[in-house]
Automatic annotation (TrEMBL):
Residues 253-663 form the Peptidase S53 domain. Residues 193-219 are annotated as: Disordered. PROSITE patterns: SEDOLISIN, SUBTILASE_SER. CDD domains: Peptidases_S53, Pro-peptidase_S53. Residues 1-24 form the signal peptide. Pfam families: Peptidase_S8 (PF00082), Pro-kuma_activ (PF09286). This is S8/S53 family peptidase. The lineage of its organism: Bacteria, Bacillati, Actinomycetota, Actinomycetes, Micrococcales. It comes from Phycicoccus sonneratiae. Gene3D superfamilies: Peptidase S8/S53 domain (3.40.50.200). PANTHER family: PROTEASE S8 TRIPEPTIDYL PEPTIDASE I CLN2, TRIPEPTIDYL-PEPTIDASE 1.
Length: 663
């Protein structure tokens, strides 16, 4: 899903990050406020607030909520342990902690929680809740009280059409809490929200009676039937040749058995039995189990068994945030994620954790709940945000050191417990066209995340991979009988971070820079070669699925598809070996062996012809054709070895069998 750039806009302590050679947990909290103030600076005010005129002081009557993220005990030791248990070359490899052992060694103490709560109450705030494993203390109060408590200088702003509050001065806490507080989230409600990384060109000219904020079924979308059941089944000989060749029509959408076959799952007879994959997204589709079961049975797979799909949803919805986040616009993401994981690992348990909003701290809270429950060994996250934006011509980071530390406090807990955290790498290529700054997305760029990039995958009638190249799309439309470029449309995210130094597992890999390279691995993401999904929708006109509230199917892609495909495949790998945990050290070690990964390069057709209904529902208003090219991903390129579109490459059957052993 494309949209206006969102992010946690603030200045980052790049030197602090570089000092760790990875993330920021081991670096301690942000620099102290000037001597004699009695206050410790947690984070600076977002830089964009100096460029945007505030409207007024924050409203005095409203109640707002924030999370105070707490530092783990001995964060440096936590980071060292996460590395050693994840590194196949370490004697500690695979020796994971359970939740109780993590809590005993690293979780913030009850005394720390009490100290934060006591100070907050004294500052006129209310203590609402304590996060799992004491990761955070949630507080509430009026904006004026929160502004005073954190010296935040909260003001009201409108940016990109969205109105909320943001700090205009450094966020601080008392010196007595300096070593305990990593970050304070929730003060900035102008940005700090994210989006799913899915692409399907669902935008239509049709009206709909479905309002995103009512959390009912989303508006319907229907692909035209001018498409193939497998790659190359139908060739467009009606339209002019493209660059001297008549191209195939796009596929109608691969179904799970085709993807399992192409990636070697079928050949290895893996089903993910005994494994659990967690998924985090915002909100929760009320028809997800019914839809996923209908979809599976329609395409020759088994429906979920009783208890095989579990849901742990945070339903403390703030109506304003539901509206801001697009409400049921997230249901397609959940549908894609659940059906992709189940498709790749039909016998694995799928555990869905729906966040209360699309704000990054609520989504991070969902990851923390997964880690605390410790039932899943793989977490699929198909959302993210750019690392930079440009406001009034000024390049502005979208993350700060405090936020990085909060994320890593949770992600590193997962790593020491043998839980791998996977993020889609993004759908806007190098982000240059989207934000004006070339840089990989966050959190995919974090060194303790497995970033999943995107490919364009050709699967033939027999279920074989005939080629797999990079996902990057230039769009062409017909103008006076000639194909004319519209320009860059979308593509897999990636590139070299300028915030994180090159992590240990990439040291022997040619990434073209001395910093963290993104992504780590790639799977099918191109919407032209995307996956078919099934979802209950509202069709406001007659369609082949009917009219009104009906189950319907459509093709979709994006790295939102690649991430759950990889998560499901990892469940298949773990079926015979147990937890992989943080996978990057293993992926890069295996990537040095020929044939374990498909080395994604420029290959195959130049692109496909896509035919769409003009109104997105039926042929009443006509059809429109376009060419969607392959392997045209902004400044990012595929090539021999590691590349910034697909990392070490795409998995093969040999990967499944090789990774299943201990290394």
């Amino acid at each position: 899903m494309t949209g206006t750039t969102r992010g946690t806009v603030a200045l980052i302590g790049a030197a602090v990050l570089a000092a760790t050679g990875a993330g920021a947990v081991g670096a301690g909290a942000a620099a102290a406020a000037p001597h004699g103030t009695g206050r410790h600076e947690v984070s600076r005010a977002p830089a964009w607030t100096t460029k945007v005129r505030s409207q007024r002081s924050a409203a005095a009557t409203a109640t707002a909520h924030v999370k105070v993220w707490l530092a783990p005990r001995d964060g440096a030791a936590l980071e060292r342990l996460a590395r050693s248990v994840s590194d196949p070359g370490s004697s500690a490899y695979g020796h994971y902690l359970d939740t109780a052992q993590y809590a005993a060694r690293f979780a913030p103490t009850s005394a720390t929680v009490s100290a934060v709560g006591s100070w907050a109450r004294g500052a006129g705030l209310h203590v609402d809740a304590v996060g799992t494993d004491r990761h955070f203390v949630q507080l509430s109060g009026s904006p004026a009280a929160l502004s005073s408590a954190f010296t935040a200088g909260l003001q009201t702003f409108t940016l990109d059409g969205h109105t909320g509050t943001a700090p205009t001065t450094p966020v601080t806490v008392p010196d007595a809490l300096a070593s305990d507080v990593l970050a304070v989230t929730g003060l900035d409600t102008v940005t700090h929200w994210t989006r799913p990384q899915q692409e399907g060109d669902r935008g239509t000219t049709a009206t709909t009676t479905s309002a995103p904020s009512d959390l009912g079924p989303p508006p319907g979308f229907v692909n035209s039937t001018t498409c193939g059941a497998y790659y190359g089944q139908k060739v467009d000989r009606t339209d002019p040749a493209f660059q001297g060749k008549h191209l195939p029509y796009s596929v109608c959408g691969y179904v799970p058995k085709q993807l399992r076959s192409a990636y070697g799952v079928t050949a290895t007879h893996r089903t993910g039995k005994g494994e659990t994959v967690a998924i985090t997204d915002a909100f929760a589709a009320p028809t997800i189990q019914e839809d996923a079961n209908t979809y599976a049975k329609r395409h020759g797979d088994k429906a979920f068994r009783r208890g095989q799909l579990t849901q742990a949803n945070d339903t403390t919805y703030d109506p304003a945030k539901v509206e801001e986040c697009g409400g049921n616009g997230w249901f397609g993401e959940e549908t894609l994620d659940v059906e992709a994981v189940h498709g790749m690992a039909p016998d694995a348990t799928v555990a869905y954790y729906g966040a209360a909003s699309c704000y990054d701290d609520d989504l991070l809270n969902s990851i923390a709940r997964v880690v605390h429950d410790n039932k899943a060994s793989v977490i699929s996250n198909s959302w993210g945000e750019p690392t930079y934006v440009v406001v009034d011509g000024v390049k502005t980071p979208t993350i700060d050191d405090a936020l990085v530390q909060a994320y890593e406090s949770v992600i590193l807990q997962g790593a020491v417990q043998g839980i791998g955290t996977y993020f889609s790498s993004g759908d806007d290529g190098d982000e240059g066209a989207n934000t004006g700054v070339v840089s990989p997305d966050w959190p995919a760029a974090d060194p303790y995340v497995t970033a999943v990039g995107g490919t364009a995958l050709a699967i033939d009638k027999a279920g074989r991979r005939t080629f797999e190249t990079g996902w990057g799309t230039d769009k062409y439309t017909l103008d006076k009988g000639r194909w004319t470029s519209v320009g860059y449309l979308y593509g897999a995210g990636g590139g070299c971070s300028d915030l994180f130094t090159k992590p240990f597992y990439q040291q022997g890999t040619r990434t073209g820079c001395a910093m963290r390279g993104v992504p780590d691995v790639g799977m099918d993401a191109d919407p032209t070669t995307g996956m078919l999904v099934g979802e209950t929708q509202v069709f406001d006109a007659p369609t082949r699925f009917g009219q009104g509230v009906r189950y319907g199917e459509y093709r979709i892609g994006g790295t939102s598809l690649a991430a759950p495909l990889m998560a499901g495949l990892q469940a298949d790998v773990q079926q015979t070996r147990g937890r992989i945990g943080f996978a990057n050290p293993l992926l890069y070690r295996l990537g040095r062996t020929s044939g374990v990964f498909h080395d994604v390069r420029p290959e195959g057709d130049r692109g496909n012809v896509r035919v769409d209904y003009v109104n997105g529902l039926n042929a009443d208003d006509g059809l429109v054709s376009s060419v969607r090219t392959f392997d045209d991903d902004s400044s990012l390129t595929t090539g021999r070895g590691w590349d910034d579109v697909t990392g070490v490459g795409a998995p093969t059957a040999r990967y499944l069998t090789t990774a299943s052993g201990r290394h």
